[in-house]
Design brief:
This protein is an alpha+beta fold and 99 residues long. It has 3 helices and 3 strands. It has a 3-stranded antiparallel β-sheet, with helices on both faces.
């Protein structure tokens, strides 16, 4: 018996321990990855772990240093192609959650 997409989504969300689809969550106890998200695009559902554990991103904020701006620009330049792939890529979620 084939499971419906809704059943697959519910199972993936429960297994990952996130609030819902496309809602990233920190995973401080994971040995290597800092975040997890259950990404859904159309009928495709995928659990994605992303971000290096222990490394802080550098989201834009008021009064930030020039070094932080350059660090963020370097990340976006380095991963731009993968970020552009959309919700089903780890780079997209790292950009959204950490940078």
């Amino acid at each position: 018996m084939a499971r419906s997409t809704a059943d697959k989504v519910k199972a993936a969300v429960k297994r990952a321990g996130v609030a819902g689809v496309n809602k990233p969550k920190r995973t401080p106890s994971h040995p290597t990855k800092s975040h997890v998200v259950v990404a859904k695009s159309g009928d495709q559902v995928k659990t994605i772990r992303f971000g290096q554990q222990g490394v802080s991103g550098s989201p834009a904020r008021k009064g930030e240093s020039e070094a932080d701006k350059k660090r963020r620009a370097s990340f976006k330049a380095r991963h731009g192609k993968n970020i552009a792939k959309g919700k089903m890529s780890a780079a997209y979620w790292a950009d959204k959650a950490k940078w």
